[in-house]
Amino acid sequence: MDHGAENVISGTTHGPVVQAGQVNDIHFHHHAPAAPVIPRQLPPAPRLFAGRRRELADLDRWFAAEEALVAVVSGPGGVGKTSLALRWLHNARTRFPDGQLYVELGAHAPNGPATPSEVLEWFLLALGTPAADIPPELSRRQALFRTLTADRRLALLLDDAVSAAQVRPLLPTSPHSAVLITSRWRLSALAVDGARFVEVESFDEDASLELLERALGPRVTSEPDAARELAHLCGGLPIALSVVGARLSTHPRRTLSTEVGSLRTERLATLTLDDGVSVEAVLDLSYVDLPPQHAKVYRLCALHPGPSFGVEAAAAVAGEPAREVEPVLTDLVEKNLLAEIADARFRFHDLMRVHARTQAEWDSEAERDAASRRVVEWYLDRLAAADLVLRPTRHRVGPRYHRGAKPVGTARAALEWLETERGNLREACRVAADLGWDDLVWQFCEALWGFFLHARHYDDWFAMHDLGVPAAVREGNRAAEARLRAQLTYAYSGLGRFADAEPEGLRALEIAEQDGDRQAIAVALTELAGVAQGAGQLTVALDRLTRAREIRREIGTRRAEALCGRRIGEVLADLGRDGEAVAELTAAAEVMADLGDDVAQARCLRSLGAIHLRRGQHAQAAEHLESALDVLRRVGSPFYEAEVRLLLGEAVAGLGDPTAARVHYEAAHEFFAATGNPKASTTSARLADLDRP
């Protein structure tokens, strides 16, 4: 019997289908699963590309035979490794429908190369993993990355790698992926991972002429002999050929023969390839056309202490206003004499930097030293301003603080700037030491105190103080020597190196007592108390802190007095005198709150939380520790945050939340392990405890 109803199934079905005779007023809402994120991160294919047919064919053949391809593209700087990799990946992009991942690994970055853990975080985010779901440990990030890539057809370009160990954790598990790795090193250790190797060499004459013709068109065929001579003079190095092509393309009436004559007569021997062909001659041609101010900025920026720099640092080294230097930098980027690596941040190509330094030799030694002094002092002044944000009331001995340095921005902004410029600050200190500016060297060390407290870059801490202490001694500045030795005492104590810490602290105390410097005596006693506390000599530590507090009270430094109170409270807690400890810590926290020093107050709360934790009062401990963590996360203080998380993990575990405890332990462990802090063994043990049934 016909009821006027008809069942029709259309489209794609998933699972069983239920059919009914006639259904009214029922609505089905089907939400398809979210489409996977398909990253498209590859930079554009090179506009000018020539030669490399054999290398491209090899990559095609290997991928066709193996499908899962890992290829190392190696060769000297400027030879076109990245261009080759990008050309092949763009040609093959339809073979990788699930996307492309790209990262610049920074083998020569000022702050060191990117770590596998950092890169995996970027890749996981690009593949659609929420930031909150990315684990902190390298091994777990690697496992998650392998899981996400197991069935995907992906292309990866790992650019400018420094070692096999850097890239090995970044290799996906997909049997249909391609990974191209560029490096100045061969990375032959990757052979055990099944890698193929492409050694990129300089162009032969045909490829050189092809690249020139792509840049200059019929001008090459109209002067074939001159074009061949240009190819020879450039040594077949693509970067040199590109600079010549760019220069001639902006001078359409200049003949290739004239260019050849200039190259022959202006060639210098400073920059050469392995086969002895000069490259500097090519770079000189771009330089000689620069207006005088542009040429000056180009030369002097090569004296900048680190590889990358911002507009203000360039203005400092050039001795010109930033508003005048910024358009000059833009022009140098356009002429391929500088690279803009981020918004308003620049660097030289390796060969360009050497070339610019060579040109700076034409300036007098006094002019070069003045430029270096300007930029070193600029970094020191900016450092002092950032330090004032982190420690506004701390007593300083450095004269830069008495020249009108004023705090700028927030503590988080200051810490971010310090982290970004960390390599440049280190190099500026080294330049000052090399040039004998002892008064600046030790001031860098003093001004970095606040940053090192927050970030604990111990390698930099010790390396710079190795320069700073002798500089203070040579200058005869005993107050500076005492200050830096006290800072070293604290640094050594933080790593449990008490045998190294104590002599530094005792020498600082000796200098201060000989000079009758009450402020320095209190500082030295405070740091020596830390040595005694760490060595288990608690009564000695308490005596030293009590003496230090008396001096602070006598001088009238309220914050420093409260800091002594916090330290006294911590020693009293170690002695089991909890009631007295709580009173000291509570009083110190109130002073810090009154002074608006959130970080110092948070450290008091951390110590109060530790006392409650030892008493088994997990809820009270968690309350103090969570308040401290909120402050430290807002400020961006990684070391103090890790300290709090270590305790907070124990507190929430005691409250029956092992999942939250793991989050805190893992975050703390990542920082402690990365900085070589002995507390990494504690966090590792806590994590192991969570894994036990």
TrEMBL record:
Pfam families: NB-ARC (PF00931), TPR_12 (PF13424)
Domain NB-ARC: 67-215
Source taxon at top rank: Bacteria
Gene Ontology MF: a single term: ADP binding
Native species: Saccharothrix variisporea
SMART domains: TPR
Protein name per Swiss-Prot or TrEMBL: Tetratricopeptide repeat protein
InterPro entries, sorted: Apaf_helical, NB-ARC, P-loop_NTPase, TPR-like_helical_dom_sf, TPR_rpt
